[in-house]
């Protein structure tokens, strides 16, 4: 078995001689990390030391020996516990060597437990019947490993004084400045106002009613970002709303500009122009890396396991991944008798947030996965035929769990323009509105993102993005400030009898 008698003794000796280091040690070790032939002795000594130090008591080898004698424990081989502890007290210990020994002992413990789990997996694989499904086999292996492995992370819970590292980190960034932080999207004005929606470890959310275009927006967004950054792999989870074939047809329509109905029916082959456009797509997609997986009916743990397996098997450690989820919801099969829908959804969001911020990290300890998802708005998010002043665009439209709002870095409301807006504008300002109501990060133009925009009638409203959605392709048409400026310019030109072409 994997263990180190010498390291265990070194750690115990260090605890007795350097009790002030105990708070740091307590965040790393527990009694189960002791496993030598004398594990019972070492483990028991550690427990007694821990109990004393947790209570703020003074300790030395004599005090610990007496407490062990008082417990009247009969150790194997009739060990003289007093002499045993005196031997520990004679070891030469320094703080750096002691903490190093603590960390080394933890690593040995982790190796031992993983070895044990691997043995369990091997034993279980022998007993599984051939009738078991492929996914069931993989999930069982994952679960056996993950129940053990996920609990290990050195110093995960240790509090840190962030000011100790502030000067070094800020100065280092000043020495090596970056032009952008995170993966920048395909829409310049959106980037300018809100920065990257795809920061590693962050979740960005698009809220919309069914059929509005949230799937189109998200897929278009991540696809263009992937291409911009040398084809970063995209893993797309579909929650039962769209089949692989439907997704392929949509993407082909978006890339070719050929109407979807012609793609779906195959009638694109009857038109030479359409044939040329469609077949021009084939060379483009050779390097595309959009991976599809239908997670309908799967529980949260299984979904997380799929993502983990995909990352380590297809992406590779330390490499970036864009995770697209369409969309966060639950089904009756995912809910237990005592679970509400909002609880399951909350657990789902929490699980994915933990996965991309704590579990799958690069060697530098930083996140490597970005996540873009969508969620249905409730009835208050319906805007068809409403007046502009009656449109709700805040957190109240978010269905299900508050944890969606809590854990996301950006949240936007995507909606089609209402009749009043269409009548007042013309087609140059697009078909849809993308309005932010949560932004943990901002872009370079903070005033433009935060300041209210004054309309022609003197009233003010939040700034938002204008989008044109056509045949599953998204085009940004400036923000509302651009729109107001353009309309004012056109109005002034009209008064002067000039013809002005507005460029957004």
Characterization of this structure:
- By secondary structure, the protein is of the alpha/beta class.
- 47% of the residues lie in helices and 12% in strands.
- It folds into two domains: 5-149, DNAb Helicase, Chain A, CATH 1.10.860; 188-240 and 295-478, Rossmann fold (3-Layer(aba) Sandwich).
- Strands 3-2-4-5-1-6-7-10-11 form a nine-stranded mixed beta sheet, with helices on both faces. Strands 8-9 form a two-stranded antiparallel ribbon.
- A hairpin with a 2-residue loop joins strand 10 (465-470) and strand 11.
- Helix 1 runs parallel beside helix 3 (39-54), helix 1 crosses helix 6 (95-127) and helix 11 crosses helix 13 (272-279).
The portion of residues assigned to helices is: 40-55%
Placed side by side, the strands forming the largest sheet appear as 3-2-4-5-1-6-7-10-11
By CATH, the superfamily of the largest domain comes out as P-loop containing nucleotide triphosphate hydrolases
Percent range for β-strand residues? 5-15%
Specify the overall morphology.
elongated
Q: Tell me which oligomeric state these chains represent.
A: single chain
What is the CATH-assigned architecture of the largest domain?
Answer: 3-Layer(aba) Sandwich
Helix count from the secondary structure assignment:
20
Question: Cα-atom Rg, whole angstroms?
Answer: 30 Å
- Profile the largest sheet: 9 strands, mixed
In the predicted model, the low-confidence regions spanning at least 5 consecutive residues are: none
